[in-house]
Amino acid sequence: MVSSSVPRGQALEPEVRRDIAAMAVAVGVVGLSFGAIAVASGLSIWLAALMSLLVFAGGSQFMAVGVVASGGAPLAALAAGLILNARHLPFGLAIGHLLGRGLAARLVGSHLLIDESVAFALAQRDPERARRVYWISGITFFVVWQPAVVLGGLIGGAVGDPAVFGVDAAFPAALLALLLPALRDAATRRAALTGGAVAVLTTPLLPAGVPVLLALCGVALLLPLPRWARGESS
Amino acid sequence: MTVTTIVLLALGTYAFRVAGPLLRDRLRLSEAARRGLAVAATTLLTALMLTAAFTEGPGFAGWARPIGVAVGGVLAWRRAPFVVVVLAAAGTAAGLRLLGVP
């Protein structure tokens, strides 16, 4: 009944909290590596921290720092980062109702919208539970990301490449685990795998971020087939 | 990288983020549209997952990563705990790299 704008202290099941904690560890490792790489690329630790606080989207942060480090103009870094983050718009449309009713909840909750919090929320069936999982996972990742970036910047090169620990494989595997329940539905699976294939195949050809947006063409497979094309299947 | 670039990137990103939650109530969405949006989000995440598993920059990521992800995926499919999935994927990729698989 207490469905006010801010989540109350209803506890999540220990399993969900453990899953969020596992993802948070991976987020922390990537944060360490972002801090180290940002400082190594000539960004001050303050700017790295400011960026993490205000942008809070790992992929675009690495991208912007990388573009500038390789001699690109700030405008190019901005454009590359924004293209990468455009997917947050359809994410927000899909899960916007989970943030809560009040304007404050939507304004604050929107900043917690990252791939990982969306994936955790979408993996829940019950909307009330999805809302709690969205908030708790989003806040957890945000709170872990900030100090990890600062720490990474302080430690510097000693952080090393996260690929050595296989963190680069941990992220897609975690996403896959969260997506499996939704992918059990045949129509969803068809759309998602078609879109995913388009994204992978166009990645060598297009700027980063665009292939993932192109994946949305897979959703067209949800549209009903014209009568003549409806065969024996389904 | 200047403060201006960072603030502009933050503002643009926030605009993308907040647009959906603010628009969602104003649009009177049919059941089919709502389902379409959920499938769209799943499709985007699947595309992110697959591109993260297979590609690095414009090229192939090497075999260690997708094999690690596949091991994690099989475990997840067999309903292994999430923590096990994540650790097995990371461990497989890291182990393969120790063995010299790129």
Task: Give a description of the structure.
The complex is a heterodimer of chains A (234) and B (102). With 234 residues, chain A is an all-alpha fold. Chain A has a domain at 14-159. In chain A, 66% of the residues lie in helices and 0% in strands. Chain A has 11 helices and no strands. Chain A has helices spanning 14-40, 45-54, 58-69, 74-85, 88-95, 103-111, 115-122, 127-155, 167-183, 186-202, 210-214. In chain A, helix 1 (14-40) runs parallel beside helix 3 (58-69) and helix 1 (14-40) packs parallel to helix 8. The N and C termini of chain A lie far apart (40 Å). The model of chain A is unreliable at 1-7 (pLDDT under 50). With 102 residues, chain B is mainly alpha-helical. Chain B has a domain at 1-43. Chain B contains 4 helices and 2 strands. Chain B has helices at residues 3-23, 31-54, 64-77, 82-98; strands at 55-56, 59-60. Chain B has a two-stranded antiparallel sheet. In chain B, strand 1 and strand 2 form a beta hairpin. The longest helix of chain B is centred in the middle third of the chain and has 24 residues, at 31-54. The mean pLDDT of chain B is 95. Chains A and B meet through helix 1, helix 2, helix 3, helix 4 and helix 5 of A and helix 1, helix 2, helix 3 and helix 4 of B.
